[in-house]
Amino acid sequence: MFVVAGATGNTGNVVARNLLEKGEKVRVIGRDLERLKALVADGAEAFQADLTDTFALARAFAGAKAVYLLIPPNVSSPDFRGFQNRVTQAIASALQSARVSHAVTLSSIGADKPDNNGPVAGLHEFEERLNRLVDLNVLHLRAAYFMENTFPQVGNIEKFSMAIGALDPDLKLAMIAAQDVGAAAADALLNLNFRHKQTRELLGERDLTMREVTQIIGNAIDKPGLPYVQAEDDQLRAALIRTGMSLNMADLVLEMAGALNSGHMRPLETRSPENTTPTSYERFVEEQVVPLFEGSAAA
Ligand SMILES: NC(=O)c1ccc[n+]([C@@H]2O[C@H](COP(=O)([O-])OP(=O)(O)OC[C@H]3O[C@@H](n4cnc5c(N)ncnc54)[C@H](OP(=O)(O)O)[C@@H]3O)[C@@H](O)[C@H]2O)c1
After folding, report:
1. Is the pTM value of this prediction over 0.85?
2. Which of ligand 1's atoms lies nearest the C-alpha of 145?
3. Ligand 1 mean position to 70 CA, how many Å?
4. Which of 223, 209, 202 is nearest to 167 (CA)?
């Protein structure tokens, strides 16, 4: 039996579904049983738990062949690094008391660095903490920048006729669809061909700049030549807070963007067939971004 945390989310849902499709037994963790119903209908066992609750997690992990783990992006937290720390401690203690032998974690590019990388510093600590569990075989999947991070560009394009962000327009960035992260994690769980403590980068289909990303969206919605504008941190901070993000999280997000722009956060592996994944940004836009525009059939 496999245990999947964050099972209603971007990557966990794909992990759970891929395992179920292979006929595996899957226990899915979420805070609300209602949101887990669709997975239960497909054969999963639901387990209600908060990822900061050590005792609940120890019960959730009991009997697992392997587990999928992540730290949820709790964007409204006034102390996100503190939240990450609580989740890390709870997961580590629960893995130990449930004597779990194999875990696959969702980490990030840049998690090799302990600081000046925004929320990714918490993933560095997550990796380090789990690496201290002597009996655990753990694979940390260091994923690239999610294509899903560009969803807010739909609102920017509709309101301001431009894409706006903190990233340098010409920075070449490895970008990955969350579904590819989930698929890679499911494969790792099915194969269990990792030993001791390992990391593996997932770099998406190819590197893209924000200018290219904007061009791809523009072409898909019949607005060729759509511009991308790199905004000032003060403007972006205010905009992020208006979406419901805490000031603390907004500052961490901007720190991470700065770390990507400066190269402090970057892949360590050379691109190869092993760390390249199938979904192109063009396909992602066609399937997931275009339907969000007003006037599209799905909207
Ligand atoms: N965005 C990027 O570019 C990027 C790149 C690399 C790595 N990452 C990492 O990816 C991770 C997020 O993965 P994701 O996108 O798959 O997550 P996600 O879609 O945001 O899903 C997280 C799930 O966790 C659950 N959750 C939230 N708070 C919880 C809590 N307190 N206790 C228990 N469950 C909770 C939620 O489910 P319920 O509401 O059902 O409980 C939610 O569906 C983060 O660690 C992030 O750093 C992101």
Report:
1. yes
2. 3
3. 6
4. 209
